[in-house]
From TrEMBL:
Residues 1-226 form the Radical SAM core domain. Probably acts as a heme chaperone, transferring heme to an unknown acceptor. Binds one molecule of heme per monomer, possibly covalently. Binds 1 [4Fe-4S] cluster. The cluster is coordinated with 3 cysteines and an exchangeable S-adenosyl-L-methionine. Belongs to the anaerobic coproporphyrinogen-III oxidase family. HemW subfamily. Keywords: 4Fe-4S, Chaperone, Cytoplasm, Heme, Iron, Iron-sulfur, Metal-binding, S-adenosyl-L-methionine. The gene is hemW. GO terms for biological process: porphyrin-containing compound biosynthetic process. It is found in: Cytoplasm. Its main location: cytoplasm. Gene3D superfamilies: tm_1862 like domain. The keyword Nuclease does not apply. GO terms for cellular component: cytoplasm. Pfam families: HemN_C, Radical_SAM. NCBIfam families: hemN_rel (TIGR00539). This is Heme chaperone HemW.
């Protein structure tokens, strides 16, 4: 469920967001409520196992609209088997009132966009909060909703290895159960991309980026976080069930601007622009602008491509049972090549990244597609 509102647009962000457009909130609430209500009954009858409300910044909604949003989710779905309900939050606008509201509705996991505990790095990333605020907020959230995940960015312009290690050490000293960490990327269309193209912004050397990644793996492991995916680390029992469901090829519904769903072997994508999404919903039109049937072969390839990014690897026999497609046969040459390059290890039908392969996960994943 995509909530597109943000205070301002961070320079590296390529998501479907609207910055400083709180005037659209009421229209958004009406539109998303309608979209939720209009999901066919047969899709709502199956109990949901996970809910993820992301953005954008869901916590940018004031308490009353946030309450309405959470209420409509509870009204429209069978949550009797819900295992995990995550809400993304920004340290800038989460407070006790919103936390109590979230907890009362059943939100049991908070994903905080911390990104760093260093003021200088936060400034480079154009984030509005301070490092000290982030540490306080992590504690405050954990006191209300124990399952806290944080996002951390590394390889920001000007960042040193020591600075990154400090971020990691602060993170591991806090009541955090899950860490997602990504190297900063310069996406086309963002202001960071333009600044980088002009030479105004310089990313870190690739070798330093690799060292930073390895350092994250070492420090998080030492602190009791196990790496279960290329970019994700969790304390025992705290892997993100929602993301695992995506990666394992389970079906999911999606609502809001730019949201992509996978249901009945079909991928659909809503219009990315919030204003166009609103207009379409207000005119009684569908928000969907793309609809693509996914063949069994595509599905199998995608499950393998995501699955191989999991540290425990992917079982191609299970993929065949799930989809009817034998990737061992279809990808025989690619798999042989990856094995020769030392990027994967195979045991029967089970394929996993080697230590070297972990650094080339995108190459390995692409071989399945
Ligand atoms: S807060 Fe997050 S979603 Fe919003 S602009 Fe910044 S990076 Fe993008």
């Amino acid at each position: 469920m995509h909530v597109p509102f943000c205070r301002h647009r961070c320079g590296y962000c390529n998501f479907s967001v609207v910055a400083d457009r709180d005037d659209l909130m009421q229209r958004y609430l009406a539109a998303i409520t309608r979209e939720l209500i209009e999901i066919p009954e047969e899709l709502k009858s199956a109990p949901l196992h996970t809910v993820f409300i992301g953005g954008g910044t869901p916590t940018h909604l004031p308490p009353e609209p946030l309450n309405r949003l959470l209420t409509v989710v509870r009204e429209q779905f069978d949550l009797s088997e819900l295992r995990e309900w995550t809400l993304e939050a920004n340290p800038e606008d989460i407070n006790d009132e919103k936390l109590m509201l979230m907890s009362a509705h059943g939100v049991n996991r908070v994903s905080l966009g911390v990104q760093s505990f260093s003021d200088a790095k936060l400034d480079v990333l154009q984030r509005g909060h301070r490092g000290e605020t982030a540490t306080e907020i992590v504690r405050q959230v954990a006191a209300r909703i124990a399952n806290v995940s944080i996002d951390l960015i590394f390889a920001a312009p000007g960042e040193s290895l020591g600075g990154w290690q400090r971020d990691l050490r602060i993170a591991t000293s806090l009541p955090v159960r899950h860490v997602s960490t990504y190297a900063l990327t310069f996406e086309k269309g963002t202001s960071f991309w333009t600044r980088k193209s002009r030479g105004d912004l310089v990313g870190v050397e690739e070798s330093l980026e690799v060292t930073m990644y390895d350092s994250a793996r070492a420090i998080l492991a030492e602190a009791g976080f196990s790496q279960y995916e290329i970019s994700n680390f969790a304390r025992p029992g705290d892997r993100c069930r929602h993301n695992l469901a995506y990666w394992q090829g389970d079906p999911w519904l999606a609502v809001g601007p730019g949201a992509a769903a996978f249901v009945n072997q079909t991928r659909t994508v809503n219009h990315r622009s919030t204003t166009t999404y609103l207009k379409r919903m207000e005119r009684g039109q569908s928000p969907v602008v793309e609809s693509e049937p996914i063949t069994a072969e595509q599905h199998a390839r995608e499950i393998a491509a995501f699955g191989v990014r999991l540290i425990e690897g992917v079982d191609l026999h299970s993929v065949q049972q799930q989809t009817g497609v034998d990737l061992r046969e279809l990808c025989r040459d690619a798999l042989r090549q990856l094995r020769v390059q030392g990027l994967i290890a195979e045991s029967g039908a089970h394929v996993k990244l080697t230590e070297r392969g972990i650094h080339f996960a995108d190459t390995v994943a692409a071989a399945f597609l």
